[in-house]
Amino acid sequence: MNLNLEQRISLAETPAPKRTWTIYAIHHSHTDIGYTERQERIEQYHVDFIRQALNIVRQAKDGAQPEWQGFKWTCETFWAVERFLESASDEERLQFAAAVISGDIELSGTYLNMTELPDYDLLRSIHGKAQAYARSIGHTIDSAMTADINGYGWGYADSLLSNGIKHLFSCIHTHHGMFALGRKQTPFWWEAPSGARLLVWNGEHYMFGNELGLCPNALGKYMIQDEFDNQLIDAHHDDIARIRLHRYVCKLEEERYPYDFVPVMLSGLGTDNAAPNGRIMEFIHKWNEQYGEPIRIEMTTLSGFFARLKQEDVNAIPVYRGDWPDWWSDGVGSTAMHTQLFRDAQRTLRQVKRLDPDGQIVTADEIAATEQALVMYAEHTWGYHSSIAEPWHPNVQLLEVRKQAYAAEASRLAHRALDKTLLAQGASTLYPERPFRYRVVNTEPAPANKLVTLSIDGWEPALFQNGLEVVNEATGQVMPHQLPHPQAVIVEVQLAAGAECTLLIRPQDGTGLAAGYMTSSTKLVGSDRVYDMEDLLEDSSAHDPVIISQHSVESPFIRIEWREDSGIVLWRNKETGADLLHQDRAYGAFTPIYEVTPAGDPTNQSQVWSVRSRMGRNRKGLHVERSAGRLIRVRPLENGPLYATVELLYEVPGMSYYALFLKVYATMNRVDVSVRLHKDSVWLPENVYVALPFTNGDATQDTLYVEKAGAVVRPWIDQLPGTLLDYMCIQEGLAWVNEAQSRTLLLGTPDTPLVQFGPLDYGRRLVHTQQLQDAKPETYAWLMTNYWETNFKATLGGFYEFRYMLDARGSVTSSALGAELGSLAGDFTVARIR
Hints:
Shape: globular
Strand content: 25-35%
Radius of gyration: 30 Å
Number of helices: 16
Largest sheet: 9 strands, antiparallel
Distance between the termini: 88 Å
Structural class: alpha+beta
Helix content: 25-40%
Number of strands: 38
């Protein structure tokens, strides 16, 4: 039976609540920098929204619009406030400050809705901005909110707390994500890594108040799936608001919600990036006159709501400790090259701050400009809303280029700041007869032993026709070196945290020239130059400490073997005798895995969109096609006293080229892996993974750690209940720690922040506390993805190189893991000096 809207309303049940309720409405505008419009227009909108809010407050108070009395506006992001203050007149700045102090306008302690890309330094910097402004006008803020994102790194809590923020209101969005704890609209104390506690409200969708009907002409239908037609509901707004509001509080009672009040967020229009709307207060006053006995509505602010919450027994609020992984940080994998640029820029900025800790060289404004570019890239909006359905749309192209430009700008500014710092500290510019002196600095907070490249300009190798040597200026020691090509000299340098040394390159006298290669009587390599057998006898005349054959590479510390069908099948730590690959692995080490989910018609834009929209919390479809790379060729490239390099070429669908370059160190238990690939351009939803099936000799005794902003986390252990298990966005790397054997295996991941845990199969997704108690995650680097149906970059095609560093060593305490991983993933700072 087809009923019209009037008939549906007449038949709809309006249940009566058992309690007397207060609904606290928090009015804001969700900030997406992009998605609905060009970034610069979004900025223009949000600046004007604050002017509109000030105008509504003024008219409510001066009697011009008495029906708007009680109006309050919450600035969801301080970014919008910054932009307003930059363009505002002196009078407007005074009006704004007065409205903040009076409580008519409230500041949130968050700067923007972020992915998990920012490191802890950047988080603390941006979380301090709102509080600094508040102090400048004699005010203090204690609350923050986020919208759209549905998770944060564990250190996020400490960052807020260190900036005086005591409360966080989280407006989760369950599109391809889910709320923590197994229920929303509930408070909890989030215990940070430091032990301090942040009071969190785990809230509803950021426009849920619109769906309940609190804003005229912006009713909406998204989370609420009832019998009312989305296209017609505004024609009967008040009737549907009455039904939904009564149903909502009754549903809360049914679900044993403990309070007689509940907060809802809402916007002034039925869209993201929406203006304030004084007519919300008209609806509230009208509602309270008619239905205020059972359900009263009051507009409030974040701090006002948390003050009300604290009137309850806060000691009864549960305490949870651990990470809160964000489901939505995976957008960074759709622009993998620019994410790589971002991470390099962020790392470079840390170098600048450590080389110039007092800001004597690089100004605060220069640092702020670099941080701003980093923030704008790391903000959670990854493109225009029709990026997948209409990848050719002008707004898709505009927003994509602008988004990626933030990463490029951050890179430019960070490296310019580094160049400026090094120049002030003795680095040379280009001039004739420059000395071959090099300053090498360890800017990381951990000691390190690294291979360092001393660069020579293109015309300078001729100065060393008889050979060269590298000398430590302070000790006079001649250091072993290796020449991968005429313009690079590789040496091994060991430095304590913060230490530095000066190296010299000088010509040899010609007596040290290498002799030509002579055939060996004991090396089992044929005239075809294929070395596919193990030597029976040790070659006493051999000088290279790393041995390369057709099926293996071996140093004094490590032995790696491969097979055509399985790729890398052995990674033996010769110091302990343990195989560092998991016995039950599904794939060989660094094997590429390619996934594509087919659509009925891969050229039909509706179908390539709809196949994505049905994925839910999976990042692939039910009929996903998965392929593993097949090793097809091995080629030794270089061998010397410091390291050897081997190329492993794979054949894999979705890519015209995929190769591993293994740099095996001769003097330490370390291997650097470079993944180089050419990805085909495909419109269908795809994923590219690299298998990391490592263990530390005994998987039953291993504990996996990852380094995140401000915390070292054990995935599947140090997490809030109900949070994401499948992947995390990390900072500099992972570690497998075997405390029983006092061994640690570190993996630096400088370029790719997404790590997939557990099986790759499509299926029912589990969240934390649903997995087996002793389950240990499989591990994959998640290089690229374009599965999202709205604003991810549609194509992943292009050339890429991603680096990994694997270092086996003795015991490393969990408190030191972050510094060790940062040191492993980073490089010494090298500058040619005067």
